[in-house]
Design brief:
alpha/beta, Leucine Aminopeptidase, subunit E, domain 1, Aminopeptidase, 15 helices, binds ligand BES, binds manganese (II) ion, binds zinc ion
Length: 493
């Protein structure tokens, strides 16, 4: 794990690489001014040649020459950077120096609120990689990150950022892992290891218990799979809890579509279909690590969606945990079936707010593309989630839950059916989820798009992104600080 330390003046320090930020128009901070001056007059022309103006996404590396830094990296931060700009700049810089054992930076001095924490998050996530299955040993990554001229508060904040980045990395690892190495039993084992290390209570239900407890949605989806399902519940229960948040994550470790089978190309990335569960595990780890004074319950229904001889059939009717029945017309609309049980279980435990995260619909990607999550739910909860996402630097967009669309999921034989018309597919799915949240303030994030990145960009690597971890942590923090805005979230005030 990387060590984050405070350093003094740039001229007195030394490291393999130095990362400095540049505002648009090439305005450097004092460390950047010093570096530019010490490098020499050629730098201006060099940056001209590279068309470096200090815009977000721009990065130029130069040899450090006589400086006590072998490499100097200039990264663009734009006009007036906020924490997310700093996070992205740090990620970009981190990617330019992955083999440098020691790196110094002044990015935390960018003047943005939360900059020091963002530097650590961006730097660590920028150097994230998944190479568990490569035969060559991993080349080493940066071991020490020095924040030049930082105070204790900056270092403290950066270490919190590192904790958050570890949670995001855990989620990325789980998503990037192939389905053959993460059957529900293994996912539950990893969750147990994490929860025990973090001092949280965890309960894992096996297939027998899942059936006995009436989790008909999860059971139905699991019937076609050789690997048995699991239902994981994790509790972070500090004595000084202010408010109670439940988070539910879709945990389809592989989605073949079931008998309503997907075309081959659509299956290629379906190991990603447990990204909601991964975000729940990663976030719970951070929340416990931070010791946030808020009760948090994490629920993850875990199963494969496969086509075995015992698989559920289109036309089958399932009874969810809360007694409501669902006609399964398309076995590929399985996420809502397992979430029905997860949400019902959450409601039973009396949380002030429920947030679910699910790679739920391709329709949401059609609507918002692959970088923005769809946000649905009741006004109190969605406002809190919107603010949390904004603070965390994750992109969400509010979508409607029109009551008159509910009839589109009316079933001829059951309380509802699991598909609706193709148009508004993300809404139809969210309307089904709404049947299982009772009166609890509830928000649903459809993360089908942002759970996975098709290309590397700033602190995002190609593959699993860990999307949602930072928003959950920010939401839990807001509740802990009485800022979440729901009446019940402030009940302890
Ligand atoms: N896991 C998929 C949604 C998905 C698609 C996530 C692409 C990420 C990328 C989900 O289980 C699914 O298959 N949804 C169907 C629903 C339809 C059958 C009503 C979809 O979106 O096509
Ligand atoms: Mn599906
Ligand atoms: Zn799915």
């Amino acid at each position: 794990m990387i060590e984050i330390v405070a350093g003094g003046a740039a001229a007195e320090g030394a490291a393999d690489a130095l990362i400095v930020g540049s505002l648009q128009g090439r305005a450097f901070d004092p460390v950047g001014e010093w570096a530019a001056g010490a490098l020499g007059d050629w730098l201006g022309g060099y940056l001209d040649d590279a068309d470096f103006q200090g815009k977000p996404g721009q990065v130029v590396s130069v040899p450090g020459g006589d400086l006590p830094y072998r490499t100097v990296v200039f990264v663009g931060m734009g006009e007036s950077p906020d924490a997310e700009d700093v996070r992205q700049a740090a990620g970009l810089g981190a990617r330019a120096v992955t083999r440098a054992a020691s790196v110094a930076t002044s990015l935390h001095g960018a003047g943005a609120d939360g900059a020091a924490r963002a530097v650590a998050e961006g730097f660590l996530l920028g150097q994230y990689r998944f190479d568990r299955h490569r035969s060559e040993p991993k080349p080493a990554l940066t071991e020490t990150l020095t924040l030049l001229g930082a105070g204790d508060g900056d270092v403290e904040a950066a270490r919190l950022g590192a904790l958050v980045a570890e949670g995001v990395a855990m989620a990325r690892d789980l998503v990037n892992e192939s389905a053959m190495y993460k059957p529900p039993v293994e996912m539950a084992r990893i969750a147990t290891e994490m929860a025990e290390a973090a001092g949280m209570r965890i309960e894992v239900w096996d297939e027998g218990r899942i059936e006995a407890e009436g989790l008909g949605g999860l059971r139905g989806v699991s019937l076609g799979a050789a690997n048995p399902p699991r239902l994981v519940q994790i509790w972070h229960e500090p004595e000084d809890a202010r408010g109670f948040l439940a988070i539910v994550g879709k945990g389809i470790v592989f989605d073949s579509g079931g008998l309503s089978i997907k075309p081959a190309a659509s299956m290629e990335t379906m190991k990603t279909d447990m990204a909601g569960a991964a975000a729940v595990f990663g976030a719970m780890r951070v929340i416990a690590g931070l010791g946030l004074p808020v009760k948090v319950l994490g629920i993850t229904p875990l199963t494969e969606n496969m086509t075995g001889g015992a698989a559920q059939r289109p036309g089958d009717v399932l009874t969810a945990r809360n007694g409501k029945t669902i006609e399964v017309l398309n076995t590929d609309a399985e996420g809502r079936l397992v979430l029905a049980d997860g949400l019902s279980l959450a409601v039973e435990q009396g949380p002030d707010m429920i947030l679910d995260l699910a790679t739920l619909t391709g329709a949401c990607m059609i609507a918002l593309g692959d970088k923005i999550a769809g946000l649905f739910g009741t006004a109190d909860a969605t406002e809190a989630v919107q603010r949390a996402a904004e603070a965390a630097g994750e992109r969400v967009w509010q979508m409607p839950l029109p009551a008159d669309y509910r009839k589109k999921i009316d079933s001829d034989v059951a309380d509802m059916k699991n598909t609706g018309p193709r148009y508004g597919g993300a809404i139809n799915a969210a309307l089904l989820l709404q049947e299982f949240v009772g009166d609890v303030p509830w928000a649903h994030l459809d993360i089908a798009g942002p759970a996975r990145a098709s290309d590397a960009e700033h602190y995002v690597q190609k593959g699993g992104t860990g999307f949602g971890v930072r928003t959950i942590v920010a939401l839990a923090s807001a509740i802990a600080e009485g800022r979440a805005g729901t009446a019940s979230g402030n009940a302890a005030d």
